[in-house]
C-alpha cells in the first residue's frame, strides 16, 4: 500500500514536471517574448537659431522640422542654450520633441576651431569663445550636467581627430565619409544638418538620422542614443552598425514614408575609394558653413537585412528545458525500478 502511494506520487511528479516543461517551452517560443519593438524617430541634433548665427527663430525652426516629418530636434546655438525654452514650448504645442543643446565653440592652440555638440545639458557650459579649453575638460563639463558630448564636423574643425578616436570620454561623433569607422566603434554616431539658414533646406529633405526609441520623450531619445540604436539615411541608403540595422529591419512597419527624394542638386556622388573601419580614413574636404553640407557616406556599409535577428537565446532555453526534462524522467524512472526491485526481493 505504501509503495503504491509512493509510485502514484512519483508518477504525479513526472506528469507535473512534463506539463511545466511544455508550458515553459511554449512560452519561450511565444511571439510575446520576442525582442521589443521600437518607435522609429526621424531626428536632427545640430541646428542654429537667431540666438546665434541662424536666421530662423526657434519657433520657425521647430515648425520647419515638424513640417518635414521630423520627430526630434536639438537646438545647439553657439555659446548659449537660450533658444531652447521658446523651441520647447512650440515643440510641445505641435508635437515635436526638442532637446536642449549647445555648440561649444572654442579653438585649438593653432587657432583652428574646435567645436563640440553638448546635448541634454541643463544650461550653457559658459566656455568662452576662442578659449583653448582642454578637450577632455570640455567633455567633463558636459558630463557634469549628465549631458552627451558629440564631436562636431570633425572633418572641418578637428584636423587631428584621428588622435581622439579611442578616447572614452568622447560620447559620439558627427559622421561623413571620413567617419565610417564610427559605425562599429561602439561610439554614438549621427548625421546632422548643422542648420543655419535656407541654404540647408535641401539637406533636410535629403539626409537625416533615425533613432529606434522606446518612446518620443527626451529620456527615450537619450536612451536610444546611449544604446546605439541609430541608423543614418543618405544617398538613398541606410547606414549603421549591424546591430542597429537588424533592429531597424524588425521595426520597419512603424517607419514613416521618407521625405520626397531629391530630384535636383542631388547629394555629392559617392567617393570612388572605399574606407574600411579598421584603417584610418583620409579626412574629407572641408565643408564651409556658407554652403549646404553634402551628405558623404561610406560606400561599403552593410545594407539593412530583412531577416529578423536570430532568437538564439530562446532556442537555447528551449533545448535546456528539453534536456532537463529527459534527465528528470530517466532519474525518476530509475528510482521507480529500484523501488520495484526492492519490493520483489523482500516480500512482506
Ligand atoms: Zn560648428
Ligand atoms: Zn553648428
Write structural notes for this entry.
- With 348 residues, this protein is α/β, with parallel strands linked by helices.
- It has two domains: 2-34 and 307-345; 39-273, Metal-dependent hydrolases (TIM Barrel, Alpha-Beta Barrel).
- Helices cover 35% and strands 15% of the residues.
- It has nine helices and ten strands.
- The protein has helices at 2-29, 58-67, 83-94, 135-144, 154-157, 201-206, 218-226, 242-250, 312-345, and strands at 39-44, 72-75, 97-107, 113-119, 148-151, 172-174, 188-190, 208-213, 230-234, 237-239.
- The protein has a ten-stranded mixed beta sheet.
- Helix 3 (83-94) links the parallel strand 2 and strand 3.
- Helix 2 runs parallel beside helix 3.
- The radius of gyration is 28 Å and the shape is elongated.
- The chain starts with a helix and ends with a helix.
- The relative contact order is 0.14.
- Bound molecules: zinc ion (2 copies).
- One zinc ion is lined by residues 46, 48, 103, 194.
Amino acid at each position: 500500500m505504501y509503495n503504491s502511494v509512493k509510485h502514484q506520487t512519483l508518477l504525479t511528479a513526472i506528469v507535473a514536471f512534463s506539463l511545466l516543461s511544455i508550458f515553459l517551452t511554449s512560452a519561450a517560443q511565444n511571439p510575446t517574448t520576442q525582442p521589443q519593438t521600437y518607435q522609429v524617430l526621424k531626428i536632427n541634433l545640430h541646428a542654429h537659431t537667431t540666438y546665434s548665427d541662424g536666421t530662423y527663430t526657434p519657433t520657425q525652426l521647430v515648425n520647419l522640422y515638424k513640417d518635414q516629418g521630423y520627430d526630434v530636434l536639438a537646438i545647439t546655438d553657439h555659446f548659449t542654450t537660450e533658444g531652447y525654452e521658446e523651441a520647447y514650448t512650440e515643440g510641445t504645442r505641435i508635437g515635436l520633441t526638442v532637446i536642449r543643446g549647445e555648440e561649444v565653440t572654442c579653438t585649438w592652440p593653432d587657432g583652428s576651431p574646435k567645436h563640440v555638440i553638448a546635448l541634454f545639458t541643463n544650461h550653457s557650459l559658459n566656455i568662452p569663445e576662442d578659449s583653448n579649453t582642454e578637450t577632455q575638460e570640455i567633455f567633463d563639463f558636459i558630463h557634469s550636467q549628465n549631458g552627451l558630448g558629440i564631436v562636431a564636423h570633425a572633418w572641418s574643425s578637428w584636423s587631428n581627430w584621428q588622435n581622439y578616436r579611442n578616447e572614452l570620454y568622447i560620447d559620439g561623433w558627427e559622421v561623413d565619409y571620413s567617419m565610417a569607422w564610427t559605425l562599429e566603434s561602439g561610439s554614438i554616431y549621427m548625421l546632422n544638418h548643422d542648420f543655419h539658414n535656407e541654404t540647408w533646406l535641401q539637406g533636410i529633405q535629403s539626409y537625416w538620422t533615425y533613432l529606434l526609441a522606446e518612446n518620443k520623450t527626451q529620456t527615450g531619445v537619450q536612451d536610444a542614443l546611449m544604446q546605439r540604436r541609430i541608423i543614418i539615411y543618405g544617398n538613398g541608403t541606410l547606414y549603421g552598425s549591424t546591430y542597429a540595422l537588424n533592429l531597424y529591419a524588425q521595426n520597419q512597419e512603424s517607419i514613416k514614408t521618407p521625405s520626397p527624394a531629391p530630384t535636383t542638386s542631388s547629394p555629392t556622388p559617392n567617393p570612388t575609394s572605399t574606407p574600411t573601419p579598421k584603417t584610418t580614413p583620409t579626412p574629407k574636404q572641408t565643408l564651409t558653413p556658407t554652403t549646404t553640407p553634402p551628405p558623404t557616406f561610406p560606400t561599403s556599409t552593410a545594407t539593412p537585412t530583412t531577416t529578423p535577428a536570430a532568437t538564439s537565446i530562446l532556442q537555447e532555453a528551449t533545448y535546456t528545458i528539453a534536456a532537463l526534462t529527459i534527465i528528470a524522467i530517466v532519474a525518476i524512472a530509475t528510482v521507480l525500478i529500484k523501488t520495484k526491485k526492492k519490493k520483489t526481493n523482500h516480500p512482506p
